[in-house]
Design a protein that fits this description.
6 helices; single chain; four-stranded antiparallel sheet; alpha+beta; 238 residues; 54% helix; Nuclear Transport Factor 2, Chain: A; elongated
């Protein structure tokens, strides 16, 4: 039990030390005094409502880059839409080791609000600024919910499209099998045997052949008389 308590105390001590180190690192820059930063931001916001953006664009547009010119155009449109400066309603600070940002919410004469973000470098000089339309928590949540619904709808549509494509593969395979089944199968027709042409025997020389054979038989039997011999048929061997 004592070991566990000692371990917990060590963890808490480490967390406090790290938090103290980070806090000390942020506070070491003397140029990031909140009152000074807020005063400089207030001065910029007041000058923004009095600045002639259209005149600067017409005079120095050829010397500006695209981002600066677009920022000036947007600022001119916002000032025409929202009107003049009325009062400041909120101030927030975001301070790091090398930059500090002051966010001020300004109520205008039209009844709408603008949010000014003024960023300062480590020497306390203004490095950049941005003006956005104020959005309440309800508007922010509704926008986030709308973006979430649209993202989910896109994902589901893509999945449905992929499922349809995969389903078509089976139909294509079935169509190919049906086409193969409907194709006529070529049956090999056996070749007809060639007719056998029987050669007609020429019997014109059979009488001479019979006489020769008879004489040969008589000589072999030592009987010269051939009256008792009769040759009935002659078969030729091929």
């Amino acid at each position: 039990m004592k070991k566990r308590l000692a371990l917990i105390c060590c963890i808490i001590s480490c967390i406090l030390v790290m938090a103290g180190c980070s806090f000390s690192l942020v506070k070491t820059n003397e140029n990031f005094d909140e009152k000074t930063l807020e005063t400089n931001a207030d001065s910029f916001v007041s000058s923004w409502f009095e600045y002639d953006f259209d005149g600067m664009l017409s005079t120095y547009s050829d010397q500006m880059d695209e981002d600066t010119a677009a920022q000036y155009k947007e600022s001119g449109k916002l000032r025409e839409q929202y009107g003049d400066y009325d009062k400041k309603t909120d101030t927030e600070f975001t301070i790091t080791t090398d930059t500090a940002t002051v966010n001020e919410t300004i109520l205008t004469s039209s009844g709408n609000k603008l949010v000014f973000s003024v960023t300062f470098d480590e020497e306390g000089n203004m490095s950049s600024w941005k003006v956005d339309k104020y959005k309440s928590l309800g508007q922010t949540m509704s926008t986030a919910a709308l973006n979430t619904v649209m993202s989910m709808a896109i994902v589901f549509l893509v999945l449905i499209f992929i499922a349809i494509i995969i389903a078509q593969f089976k139909r294509i395979n079935d169509m190919q099998n049906n086409n193969k089944a409907q194709e006529p199968v070529a049956v090999a027709v056996p070749a007809e045997p060639e007719p056998v042409i029987e050669e007609e025997e020429d019997l014109s020389d059979d009488l001479e052949l019979v006489a020769v054979i008879t004489a040969a038989i008589a000589a072999a039997s030592e009987n010269e008389c051939t009256d008792g011999l009769m040759i009935r048929s002659i078969i030729r061997r091929k």
